[in-house]
Protein backbone atom coordinates (compact mmCIF):
# COMPACT_ATOMS: atom_id res chain seq x y z
CA UNK A 1 0.00 0.00 0.00
CA UNK A 2 1.17 3.55 -0.71
CA UNK A 3 -0.98 5.15 2.02
CA UNK A 4 0.45 5.72 5.49
CA UNK A 5 0.51 8.25 8.32
CA UNK A 6 2.57 9.11 11.39
CA UNK A 7 2.04 7.74 14.89
CA UNK A 8 3.93 8.60 18.08
CA UNK A 9 4.77 5.83 20.52
CA UNK A 10 6.16 6.06 24.05
CA UNK A 11 7.24 8.78 26.48
CA UNK A 12 9.02 10.76 25.13
CA UNK A 13 7.43 10.03 21.78
CA UNK A 14 9.20 8.10 19.04
CA UNK A 15 7.77 8.75 15.56
CA UNK A 16 6.92 6.02 13.04
CA UNK A 17 5.29 5.87 9.65
CA UNK A 18 2.37 3.45 9.91
CA UNK A 19 -0.07 1.69 7.62
CA UNK A 20 -3.66 1.86 8.89
CA UNK A 21 -4.75 -1.64 7.96
CA UNK A 22 -8.40 -2.70 7.97
CA UNK A 23 -7.32 -6.27 7.19
CA UNK A 24 -5.34 -6.99 10.37
CA UNK A 25 -5.88 -6.62 14.11
CA UNK A 26 -2.56 -5.88 15.79
CA UNK A 27 -0.54 -2.73 16.27
CA UNK A 28 3.10 -3.55 15.72
CA UNK A 29 6.42 -1.85 15.06
CA UNK A 30 10.06 -2.94 14.72
CA UNK A 31 11.96 -3.17 17.98
CA UNK A 32 15.52 -2.03 18.62
CA UNK A 33 16.27 -5.71 19.31
CA UNK A 34 15.45 -6.66 15.70
CA UNK A 35 18.67 -7.23 13.78
CA UNK A 36 17.11 -8.38 10.51
CA UNK A 37 18.18 -6.21 7.54
CA UNK A 38 14.51 -5.35 6.92
CA UNK A 39 14.27 -3.79 10.40
CA UNK A 40 17.35 -1.65 9.78
CA UNK A 41 15.63 -0.12 6.74
CA UNK A 42 13.33 1.85 9.07
CA UNK A 43 13.21 3.48 12.49
CA UNK A 44 13.18 0.97 15.38
CA UNK A 45 11.40 1.38 18.71
CA UNK A 46 13.53 1.63 21.85
CA UNK A 47 11.32 0.42 24.70
CA UNK A 48 14.02 1.15 27.29
CA UNK A 49 13.94 4.83 26.29
CA UNK A 50 10.20 5.11 27.05
CA UNK A 51 9.08 5.58 30.65
CA UNK A 52 5.62 4.17 29.81
CA UNK A 53 6.72 1.03 27.92
CA UNK A 54 5.91 -2.31 29.55
CA UNK A 55 7.20 -5.51 27.94
CA UNK A 56 5.11 -8.62 28.64
CA UNK A 57 7.64 -11.01 27.07
CA UNK A 58 5.03 -13.29 25.49
CA UNK A 59 6.30 -14.36 22.08
CA UNK A 60 3.88 -14.20 19.15
CA UNK A 61 3.93 -14.90 15.43
CA UNK A 62 1.50 -13.16 13.09
CA UNK A 63 0.93 -14.31 9.51
CA UNK A 64 0.11 -11.84 6.72
CA UNK A 65 -0.57 -12.41 3.05
CA UNK A 66 2.92 -11.09 2.24
CA UNK A 67 4.85 -12.84 5.02
CA UNK A 68 5.09 -13.17 8.78
CA UNK A 69 6.50 -11.29 11.76
CA UNK A 70 7.72 -12.51 15.14
CA UNK A 71 7.99 -10.52 18.33
CA UNK A 72 6.95 -10.02 21.93
CA UNK A 73 3.83 -8.45 23.40
CA UNK A 74 4.11 -5.10 25.15
CA UNK A 75 2.11 -1.96 25.85
CA UNK A 76 2.83 1.75 25.65
CA UNK A 77 1.13 5.07 25.06
CA UNK A 78 0.29 5.78 21.43
CA UNK A 79 -0.70 9.11 19.92
CA UNK A 80 -2.58 8.92 16.62
CA UNK A 81 -2.90 12.69 16.19
CA UNK A 82 -2.49 15.88 18.24
CA UNK A 83 -5.58 15.13 20.35
CA UNK A 84 -6.06 11.35 20.30
CA UNK A 85 -3.82 9.55 22.79
CA UNK A 86 -4.25 5.92 23.87
CA UNK A 87 -2.64 4.86 27.14
CA UNK A 88 -1.24 1.34 27.61
CA UNK A 89 -2.05 0.33 24.03
CA UNK A 90 -1.22 -3.36 23.37
CA UNK A 91 1.68 -3.68 20.92
CA UNK A 92 3.83 -6.29 19.25
CA UNK A 93 7.50 -5.32 19.32
CA UNK A 94 8.88 -7.08 16.27
CA UNK A 95 12.14 -8.95 16.76
CA UNK A 96 12.22 -10.78 13.41
CA UNK A 97 10.66 -9.79 10.09
CA UNK A 98 12.98 -11.64 7.74
CA UNK A 99 9.93 -13.16 6.07
CA UNK A 100 8.13 -9.81 5.66
CA UNK A 101 9.04 -7.44 2.77
CA UNK A 102 9.18 -4.29 4.94
CA UNK A 103 12.41 -2.99 3.41
CA UNK A 104 10.51 -2.24 0.19
CA UNK A 105 7.63 -0.51 2.00
CA UNK A 106 7.40 3.21 2.88
CA UNK A 107 6.20 2.50 6.43
CA UNK A 108 7.65 0.67 9.44
CA UNK A 109 4.61 0.08 11.66
CA UNK A 110 1.07 -1.24 11.21
CA UNK A 111 -2.06 -0.09 13.05
CA UNK A 112 -4.66 -2.87 12.78
CA UNK A 113 -8.25 -1.71 12.27
CA UNK A 114 -9.99 -5.02 11.59
CA UNK A 115 -12.77 -6.57 13.69
CA UNK A 116 -10.59 -9.45 14.88
CA UNK A 117 -9.28 -9.95 18.40
CA UNK A 118 -5.59 -8.92 18.48
CA UNK A 119 -3.19 -11.84 18.85
CA UNK A 120 -2.46 -12.80 22.47
CA UNK A 121 -4.33 -9.83 23.91
CA UNK A 122 -7.48 -9.44 25.98
CA UNK A 123 -8.11 -6.02 24.46
CA UNK A 124 -10.88 -5.60 21.89
CA UNK A 125 -10.13 -4.47 18.33
CA UNK A 126 -8.86 -0.89 18.21
CA UNK A 127 -12.04 0.76 16.81
CA UNK A 128 -14.12 -0.88 19.56
CA UNK A 129 -11.48 -0.11 22.19
CA UNK A 130 -11.51 3.62 21.34
CA UNK A 131 -15.29 3.64 21.76
CA UNK A 132 -15.30 1.68 25.03
CA UNK A 133 -12.66 3.98 26.53
CA UNK A 134 -14.90 6.91 25.53
CA UNK A 135 -12.13 8.35 23.39
CA UNK A 136 -14.62 8.35 20.51
CA UNK A 137 -18.32 9.17 20.76
CA UNK A 138 -19.24 7.04 17.75
CA UNK A 139 -18.02 3.57 16.77
CA UNK A 140 -17.26 4.73 13.24
CA UNK A 141 -14.14 5.41 11.23
CA UNK A 142 -13.56 6.27 7.58
CA UNK A 143 -10.74 6.33 5.07
CA UNK A 144 -10.25 8.88 2.33
CA UNK A 145 -7.71 7.50 -0.14
CA UNK A 146 -6.98 9.93 -2.96
CA UNK A 147 -4.70 9.40 -5.96
CA UNK A 148 -1.34 11.07 -5.22
CA UNK A 149 -0.56 13.92 -4.81
CA UNK A 150 -4.05 14.73 -3.45
CA UNK A 151 -4.39 14.51 0.37
CA UNK A 152 -5.73 11.39 2.07
CA UNK A 153 -7.03 10.95 5.61
CA UNK A 154 -8.16 8.55 8.31
CA UNK A 155 -11.10 9.95 10.29
CA UNK A 156 -11.83 8.29 13.63
CA UNK A 157 -15.32 8.70 15.08
CA UNK A 158 -17.08 9.67 11.85
CA UNK A 159 -16.50 10.82 8.28
CA UNK A 160 -15.92 14.08 6.46
CA UNK A 161 -19.20 14.79 4.66
CA UNK A 162 -17.52 17.46 2.51
CA UNK A 163 -15.51 14.70 0.78
CA UNK A 164 -18.51 12.62 -0.28
CA UNK A 165 -18.82 12.30 -4.05
CA UNK A 166 -22.33 10.82 -3.86
CA UNK A 167 -24.99 9.78 -1.39
CA UNK A 168 -23.61 7.64 1.43
CA UNK A 169 -24.66 3.99 1.14
CA UNK A 170 -24.33 1.27 3.77
CA UNK A 171 -23.80 -2.48 3.52
CA UNK A 172 -24.17 -4.91 6.40
CA UNK A 173 -21.01 -6.51 7.74
CA UNK A 174 -21.10 -10.25 8.43
CA UNK A 175 -21.27 -10.38 12.22
CA UNK A 176 -19.31 -13.63 12.59
CA UNK A 177 -16.34 -12.51 10.47
CA UNK A 178 -13.13 -11.03 11.91
CA UNK A 179 -12.91 -8.82 8.80
CA UNK A 180 -14.97 -6.02 7.29
CA UNK A 181 -16.68 -8.66 5.18
CA UNK A 182 -19.65 -7.89 2.93
CA UNK A 183 -22.00 -9.94 0.79
CA UNK A 184 -21.55 -9.36 -2.94
CA UNK A 185 -24.67 -10.19 -4.89
CA UNK A 186 -23.27 -9.98 -8.40
CA UNK A 187 -20.21 -8.98 -10.41
CA UNK A 188 -20.89 -7.74 -13.94
CA UNK A 189 -18.37 -7.26 -16.74
CA UNK A 190 -19.82 -5.05 -19.45
CA UNK A 191 -23.30 -5.67 -18.02
CA UNK A 192 -22.96 -9.48 -18.13
CA UNK A 193 -22.94 -11.28 -14.74
CA UNK A 194 -19.90 -13.29 -13.76
CA UNK A 195 -20.88 -16.97 -13.86
CA UNK A 196 -19.19 -17.85 -10.58
CA UNK A 197 -20.57 -14.94 -8.58
CA UNK A 198 -24.35 -14.58 -8.69
CA UNK A 199 -27.18 -14.67 -6.19
CA UNK A 200 -25.12 -13.46 -3.24
CA UNK A 201 -22.73 -16.42 -3.32
CA UNK A 202 -19.60 -14.25 -3.15
CA UNK A 203 -18.10 -12.46 -0.17
CA UNK A 204 -15.71 -9.53 -0.20
CA UNK A 205 -13.35 -8.13 2.44
CA UNK A 206 -12.51 -4.42 2.37
CA UNK A 207 -8.78 -4.22 3.12
CA UNK A 208 -6.71 -1.04 3.14
CA UNK A 209 -3.56 -3.16 3.44
CA UNK A 210 -4.05 -4.57 -0.07
CA UNK A 211 -3.26 -2.46 -3.12
CA UNK A 212 -5.39 -4.13 -5.79
CA UNK A 213 -8.53 -6.19 -6.23
CA UNK A 214 -8.04 -9.89 -5.54
CA UNK A 215 -10.40 -12.72 -6.40
CA UNK A 216 -10.46 -16.53 -6.62
CA UNK A 217 -8.48 -17.82 -9.59
CA UNK A 218 -11.56 -19.03 -11.49
CA UNK A 219 -13.15 -15.57 -11.29
CA UNK A 220 -9.96 -13.82 -12.39
CA UNK A 221 -9.65 -16.11 -15.41
CA UNK A 222 -13.23 -15.42 -16.48
CA UNK A 223 -12.77 -11.64 -16.16
CA UNK A 224 -9.46 -11.62 -18.04
CA UNK A 225 -10.95 -13.75 -20.82
CA UNK A 226 -13.70 -11.17 -21.30
CA UNK A 227 -11.26 -8.25 -21.20
CA UNK A 228 -8.89 -9.83 -23.74
CA UNK A 229 -5.93 -8.71 -21.64
CA UNK A 230 -3.13 -10.10 -23.88
CA UNK A 231 -4.03 -7.54 -26.58
CA UNK A 232 -3.48 -4.52 -24.35
CA UNK A 233 -0.45 -2.31 -24.86
CA UNK A 234 1.08 0.50 -22.79
CA UNK A 235 -1.70 3.02 -23.46
CA UNK A 236 -4.73 1.79 -21.49
CA UNK A 237 -6.90 4.62 -22.85
CA UNK A 238 -6.64 3.30 -26.42
CA UNK A 239 -8.71 0.24 -25.62
CA UNK A 240 -12.47 -0.06 -25.46
CA UNK A 241 -12.82 -1.86 -22.16
CA UNK A 242 -16.14 -2.53 -20.39
CA UNK A 243 -17.39 -1.25 -17.06
CA UNK A 244 -16.90 -3.41 -13.98
CA UNK A 245 -19.89 -3.42 -11.63
CA UNK A 246 -19.98 -4.81 -8.11
CA UNK A 247 -23.45 -5.16 -6.62
CA UNK A 248 -23.32 -5.02 -2.83
CA UNK A 249 -26.24 -4.86 -0.41
CA UNK A 250 -25.92 -1.08 -0.30
CA UNK A 251 -26.05 -0.66 -4.08
CA UNK A 252 -23.93 -1.00 -7.21
CA UNK A 253 -20.36 0.32 -7.32
CA UNK A 254 -19.25 0.94 -10.91
CA UNK A 255 -15.66 1.22 -12.13
CA UNK A 256 -14.63 2.81 -15.41
CA UNK A 257 -11.66 1.28 -17.26
CA UNK A 258 -9.35 4.11 -16.14
CA UNK A 259 -10.24 3.25 -12.53
CA UNK A 260 -9.32 -0.44 -12.69
CA UNK A 261 -6.37 -0.38 -15.11
CA UNK A 262 -2.76 0.33 -14.20
CA UNK A 263 0.25 1.28 -16.26
CA UNK A 264 3.00 -1.13 -15.30
CA UNK A 265 6.00 -2.76 -16.90
CA UNK A 266 6.97 -6.15 -18.28
CA UNK A 267 10.74 -6.31 -18.36
CA UNK A 268 11.88 -3.10 -20.04
CA UNK A 269 8.53 -2.54 -21.80
CA UNK A 270 5.55 -0.55 -20.53
CA UNK A 271 2.24 -2.36 -20.36
CA UNK A 272 -1.39 -1.74 -19.53
CA UNK A 273 -2.47 -4.09 -16.75
CA UNK A 274 -5.66 -4.84 -14.86
CA UNK A 275 -5.58 -4.10 -11.12
CA UNK A 276 -6.77 -7.61 -10.33
CA UNK A 277 -4.79 -10.57 -9.05
CA UNK A 278 -5.67 -14.14 -8.16
CA UNK A 279 -5.79 -15.04 -4.47
CA UNK A 280 -7.39 -18.26 -3.27
CA UNK A 281 -8.36 -17.85 0.39
CA UNK A 282 -9.06 -21.32 1.82
CA UNK A 283 -12.13 -22.20 3.91
CA UNK A 284 -13.49 -21.44 6.43
CA UNK A 285 -12.82 -17.74 5.65
CA UNK A 286 -12.70 -18.23 1.89
CA UNK A 287 -13.30 -18.19 -0.92
CA UNK A 288 -13.16 -14.41 -0.84
CA UNK A 289 -12.71 -11.35 -2.94
CA UNK A 290 -10.58 -8.56 -1.46
CA UNK A 291 -11.21 -4.91 -2.27
CA UNK A 292 -7.97 -3.01 -1.73
CA UNK A 293 -6.88 0.57 -2.30
CA UNK A 294 -8.13 0.63 -5.91
CA UNK A 295 -11.66 0.16 -4.56
CA UNK A 296 -11.31 2.49 -1.59
CA UNK A 297 -10.10 5.44 -3.60
Automatic annotation (TrEMBL):
InterPro entries assigned to the protein according to its UniProt record, in alphabetical order: Aspartic_peptidase_A1, Aspartic_peptidase_AS, PEPTIDASE_A1, Peptidase_aspartic_dom_sf
Single GO BP term: proteolysis
Keyword match Nucleus: no
Disulfide bridge map: 34-39
Active site (UniProt): 21, 207
Keywords: Aspartyl protease, Disulfide bond, Hydrolase, Protease
One MF annotation (Gene Ontology) recorded for this entry: aspartic-type endopeptidase activity
Domain Peptidase A1 stretches: 3-297
Family matches, as Pfam families: Asp
Domain of life, source organism: Eukaryota
UniProt similarity note: Belongs to the peptidase A1 family.
Protein name (Swiss-Prot/TrEMBL): Peptidase A1 domain-containing protein
Amino acid sequence: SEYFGEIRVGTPAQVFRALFDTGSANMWLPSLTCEAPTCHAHARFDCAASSTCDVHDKRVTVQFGTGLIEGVTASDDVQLDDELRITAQPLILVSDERHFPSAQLPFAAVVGLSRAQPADSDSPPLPQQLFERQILERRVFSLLLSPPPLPSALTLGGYDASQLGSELRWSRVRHNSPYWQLTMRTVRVGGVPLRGCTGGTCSVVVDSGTSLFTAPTEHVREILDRLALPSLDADCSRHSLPLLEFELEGGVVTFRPDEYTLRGSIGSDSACAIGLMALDVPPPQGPLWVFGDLFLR
